[in-house]
Amino acid sequence: MGAFITPLMLSGVNVAIPTIVEGLRIDAITASWIPLAYLLSSAVFLLPFGRLGDMFGRKKMFVSGMTTVTVASILASLAQTPLALILCRVLQGTGAAMIFGTGIAILSSVYPPEKRGRVLGLSVSFVYLGLTCGPFAGGWVTQHFGWRSVFIFHVPVVVLVIVIALLNLKGEWRGPAGQKFDFPGAILYGASMIALMYGFSDLPAASSIFLILLSVVGLSVFFKYEKKLEYPLFNVNLFFANQVFFYSCMAALIMYSSTFSVTFLMSLYLQNIKGFTPQFAGFIMISQPLMMTLFSPLAGRMSDRHEPRLITSSGMGLTAAGLASLATLNPQTSTIFIVLALIIIGFGFALFSSPNANAVVSSVEKKHLGAASGTIATMRVVGQMFSMGIVTLVFALLLGQVQISPERHGQLLASINASFIVTSLLCLIGVYFSLKRGNLRAAQSL
């Protein structure tokens, strides 16, 4: 249920963005910050909260995250200005970071390796079930009750998760005693990520180029600093000493960077270019996450018996083909073509996600499961953030900081097509990293 709720919230809001843009009269670049603020705060706080969960208890962090999401969602529904809404999204992302950093670690701690792929596949399936329900539910409530309702329709489910966790999730899970929290690393990492994404959003200004270069320097210093620590915020040595782990994480980063923006872009395309209602647009977008929901458990079970890199690489290739298909969208594109392209992307992602997660956690010793779980979540959130960063950059270059209106639809469509071209090429590059990891079974036998 925890895996279900955050993607339900995220994908539901994405469908409502065109209506939010109209209601608050905001421009295209600011609109991209509605999902980006959520993702940026998740990326900034995920590693720190993952470490704090290891130190003080993952269940405590999980419940705290759900509580934070509840409060932030209610506040977002009351926002009167774009800035207030974006700040509420930052708070939502902070709560989500507490959830992301603990879920897989708890599951990996209580299930043996031979069942891990099946369990992670089931967890991933519920993530995609949330993504499946989100667009339709978000579109329906937006159309009938206004955009503010999209921030609170999921609140009863979140409250139910909190109650169940407190009453039925027995015990506590944490790392070894005596760990220390890396405050300098957390500040350096967070500042670097903020500089990077703010720089992306303001290109091609000279100040944004400076911010991007500054973030690159900051992240380089962060990695060197972390290698020297006994209790690092990010286990750099684990990241670079294990080939299967490293390339699996890079493949995940690229996959999420390629695919996360699909919902945002398709929401703008279907409602602005095609003129569909939020409810019908959400219904069309169900086809992608529905395939993920149906086939992720099967792919997870396959990865328990067969080499994960072959399954994941096939999935990335299919996803790249689906993204390339969406790069040809125009005002006359048929609904059937759109649905088929989304189905291909969804099926490809299903083949990739749970086998890749299985490869990551199966490539490390049990004492490193918490770090591996945090790394998977970090690659996902940072990849999602980069995906929106790519879109923000393309929109800044081709559309500019203007309100989306009928006379701007030509530029909007060009921006959408260019975004899909970039992400499809990026996904093809990811196939290399997926294949490069080598055979997990051979690595385990050494």
Strand-helix topology:
Blueprint: H1 2-24, H2 28-56, H3 58-77, H4 82-110, H5 113-145, H6 155-168, H7 183-201, H8 206-226, H9 236-241, H10 243-259, H11 262-273, H12 278-285, H13 287-305, H14 308-326, H15 335-362, H16 369-398, H17 409-436, H18 440-445
Helix pairs in contact: 1-2, 1-4, 1-5, 1-11, 2-3, 2-4, 2-7, 2-16, 3-4, 3-6, 4-16, 5-12, 5-13, 5-15, 7-8, 10-14, 10-15, 10-16, 10-17, 11-12, 11-17, 13-15, 14-15, 14-17, 16-17
Number of strands: 0
| Apparent shape | globular
Strand content: under 5%
Structural class: mainly alpha
Query: How is the biggest beta sheet arranged?
Result: none
Instruction: Provide mean pLDDT, rounded.
Output: 83
What's the total helix number?
A: 18
Q: What series of H and E elements makes up the topology?
A: HHHHHHHHHHHHHHHHHH
Rg over CA atoms: 20 Å
Terminal Cα span: 37 Å
List low-confidence stretches.
442-446
Helix content: over 70%
Structural descriptors:
446 residues, mainly alpha, 18 helices, globular
